[in-house]
Every structure is written in structure tokens, then in C-alpha cells.
Design goal:
alpha+beta; 5-stranded antiparallel β-sheet; 3-stranded antiparallel β-sheet; 11 helices
């Protein structure tokens, strides 16, 4: 396993990306051909979406960079998104509380990937290149990492390395926010652009607290999308999950699961119309199953039998209709 710091130019080219400088230069000159590019409609205008092609050298380089370098980097415990052995559930667990009242605040970071500037990427990477390397070689390594991971000096959703690179840029802000929250006995976690806070004090609903978070993240060009701010007492619902004195599926999400189980459980069910539909349903069922399994330690014992039966039903449906 490569250490968390790159110690030489040869280590970068020979051990991490496993390619010569010449082949690297050629790959970077043609990197836009490594992506499918299309437009996705928004409420106002459209967004350009990039999807990387798997049979391309840039894809291989991103994969090697991610597995041999980025995966060895350490992040604060509050960071739950895009991390090995971390999930959305880990983002929610720290906010479970039997104490009432409990106050919750969700803040959303606006245009998370798009707000990251190439100078911030360079500054963040600089720490992970050993000082024993000459300034010229250090800059060469940084330029190549940025070249592999960005398009037009921006990180994009379609790149394999974008999620962990965003965590790297945001790392110093996470540390500052975490320290600030600990001083006030506030629990903080982040999953990508979602920031979740909880406390026994209503202070997190005060504009002063939110303004401090806004000030901290603005130092690296990030802003809050105030339209997505959520303030709740006792429990909060996020992306189909409800957090309070436990974690459970929201009524809407539970209804969706029950509908899938019901439809697939009918005698007249003949399978899926297409492989795409099959793939979509399989992923949904697998996601529900994973969530229910993770929820077992935190649910009421009276509901344990019901949850276990639902998990078994999901597994049976996946085996019967969604097996590859």
C-alpha cells in the first residue's frame, strides 16, 4: 500500500499511476474524448453532465489514483460521504438521541463540485507531496493529478476521483466546523453537500450559528443554498429517512418499498419489461435491504420481527426475479 504522501516523481509514475510521462501527456491531451457529454434540464436552463467511458486510459488513471493514493488519506470522523466503509447511515447515526427536545438543522452547500477552484485543489494536494521533492517535480505531480481528475480546471460528477477530491478540498473546513461545534456541544456530520447538525440547544436554529458556518465555508468559495435549509425539533426527515430517538424509513419511502413488494409478490407478476427496469428495481431493493439491516440495532424490539420478515421478503424477491 502506498503511503499517504508521495515521496518522489518515480513513485508517482511507476507505483501509483503506472504510466510513463510521455503516455501521461498523450492521455491528458485527449482527455475530453474519455467522457460522454450531455445536457440535463434544470428549473433554470440546463446542466452539462459528463460520464466517463470505462474503456479509456483516463478511467484507468483515475482508478489507480483513487485506489493507490486517495484511499489512504485520512479525514475527520464527521465526513461520511465517499469514504470506504462509510454510508449515509453513518451520516445519520450520531444524531440519534433519546433526549427531548432535540433540535436539528440541515444546511445544503450550493453547487458543491462546481464551487471547487483549481487553486484550492492545488493547495490541498501540496500537503500530500513530500517536501524532499524539488519544487519542479512537485508541481509536475500536482499538475498531472489535476489533469487526470478535472475538465477545464473543474472537478465533475462523472469522474471517479471527484467525490474524494471534494472531501480533500473541504477537509480543513470540516475540521474547523467540527471544532466549533464541539465547543458548543453540537453534533456535526457531512455527506457530500449535506451538512447535518443536532443539539439539545435551540442555538443551532439561531441566525448567528448559521452565519458562522456560512463564513467558514465561504473562505474556500462555498455558499449555502438557503432554500434547502431545514429546521426541526425532536426529529428530522432527510432523503426518506427519519432521525430522532431512532432511525426509520419515512412513510413515503416505506410506502414505495411496500408497493414494490406487493407488485412483485402477485401471482400474475411476469417479470420486468426491460433489463433497465430490472436493474433499477434490484438496486432499490438492495438499498432498502441494506438500510433495514443497518437499522436493526436502533429499532424498537417490538418491530424487530416485522423488520426481519421484510428483509426476508426482499431477499426472496431479489433471488427470484433480479438474479443476473
Amino acid at each position: 500500500m502506498i503511503g499517504f504522501r508521495i515521496t518522489s516523481k518515480s513513485q508517482f509514475f511507476d507505483e501509483i499511476v503506472e504510466i510513463s510521462e510521455e503516455k501521461m501527456a498523450l492521455a491528458l491531451n485527449n482527455k475530453k474524448s474519455a467522457y460522454h457529454c450531455y445536457k440535463k434540464a434544470k428549473k433554470e436552463g440546463f446542466r452539462i453532465i459528463y460520464a466517463i467511458k470505462k474503456n479509456n486510459l483516463i478511467y484507468e488513471l483515475q482508478n489507480k489514483l483513487k485506489n493507490s493514493f486517495f484511499m489512504n488519506l485520512l479525514f475527520p470522523e464527521c465526513v461520511c460521504g465517499f469514504r470506504k466503509r462509510k454510508s449515509y447511515y453513518d451520516f445519520l447515526i450520531p444524531h440519534i438521541s433519546s433526549n427531548e427536545p432535540r433540535y436539528y438543522l440541515r444546511l445544503d452547500i450550493s453547487d458543491f463540485f462546481g464551487s471547487i477552484d483549481v487553486d484550492d485543489i492545488e493547495e490541498s494536494l501540496n500537503y500530500y507531496i513530500d517536501d524532499s521533492i524539488s519544487s519542479e517535480e512537485k508541481q509536475l505531480i500536482i499538475n498531472n493529478i489535476i489533469g487526470i481528475t478535472t475538465i477545464d480546471d473543474k472537478i465533475i460528477q462523472g469522474a471517479l476521483t471527484s467525490p474524494i477530491l471534494s472531501n480533500l478540498v473541504f477537509r480543513s473546513l470540516d475540521i474547523r466546523i467540527e471544532k466549533y461545534c464541539k465547543m458548543l456541544n453540537i453534533t456535526y456530520t457531512r455527506y457530500a453537500d449535506d451538512m447535518l447538525f443536532s443539539s439539545d440547544s435551540s442555538y443551532i436554529h439561531n441566525y448567528r450559528f448559521q452565519n458562522m458556518i456560512k463564513t467558514i465555508i465561504s473562505e474556500k468559495g462555498f455558499n449555502l443554498n438557503t432554500k434547502k435549509t431545514l429546521k426541526y425539533k425532536n426529529e428530522i426527515s432527510l432523503n426518506g429517512y427519519v432521525v430522532g430517538n431512532s432511525i426509520r424509513l419515512s412513510r413515503k419511502k416505506l410506502s414505495q418499498l411496500n408497493n414494490i413488494i406487493y407488485e412483485m409478490g402477485k401471482k400474475q407478476f411476469k417479470g420486468f419489461k426491460s433489463n433497465k427496469e430490472k436493474y433499477t428495481i434490484k438496486n432499490k431493493l438492495a438499498g432498502y435491504r441494506a438500510f433495514l439491516i443497518q437499522s436493526i440495532p436502533y429499532i424498537n424490539r417490538n418491530n424487530l420481527v416485522q423488520i426481519s420478515k421484510k428483509i426476508t421478503k426482499i431477499e426472496n424477491l431479489i433471488t427470484k426475479y433480479c438474479a443476473d
